Amino acid sequence: MTILMGWVARSRLRDRPEADRHLLRHPASTLILGIVGAVLFFGAAIVSNTVGKNSTSTIWTTLTFVGLGCASSLAIADYFRARHRVSDSGIDFGRMLGERGRLRWADLRRVHHASFMKWFVLEGRSGTKVRVSFMLLGLPEFARLVLQHVPREVIEPDTLDLLQAAEQGQLPDVDE
Q1: Could you report the per-residue pLDDT of 86-122, keeping only the tens digit for each?
Q2: Burial status of residue 96 (CB atoms within 10 A of its CB: 0-12, 13-18, 19 or more)
Q3: Which secondary-structure segment (H or E) carries 77?
Q4: Is the Cα dihedral 24, 29, 35, 37 positive or negative?
Q5: How far is 40 from 43, CA to CA, in rounded Å?
Q6: How far apart are CA 30 and CA 52, in angstroms?
Q7: What DSSP line would sit under 24-69, residue for residue?
């Protein structure tokens, strides 16, 4: 798993076209892992109930394989849906399983990070929360715009350190 996450983390560092500078999106490695996982786990569920059926094949093993296949499918959905665009005025965001929206930098009441989930959380005054994964391409531009347009008192101190490092190209760890 460490090797896979290291590969995914390194794929965030590839050079991007200038036209994509304001676009936050997952690297292709996220899509590849999602597809491989879905095929592997859904395939295991099918095989364990057909040609591979034996005394260890139970409803629980099947549900486990189907659950892991669904989790892999969520990675595929996130690849296509969780795309954000940042600008000097704010962030246009997309959610994996929800609506798209817009949050202005001026409307933020709190910026923090969830280290376990590996994302930045932007909280608007209206209660809107936008989660920006550490995995996304474009984090340096995101960090630059947050640091430029969001008042420091809104950004938690440890998150400020992460954003300043990301602005310099030192992206948050995703493989720990």
Answers
A1: 999 999 999 887 789 999 999 999 999 998 899 999 9
A2: middle
A3: helix 59-81
A4: negative
A5: 5
A6: 30
A7: EB--HHHHHHHHHHHHHHHHHHHHHHTTT--TT--HHHHHHHHHHH
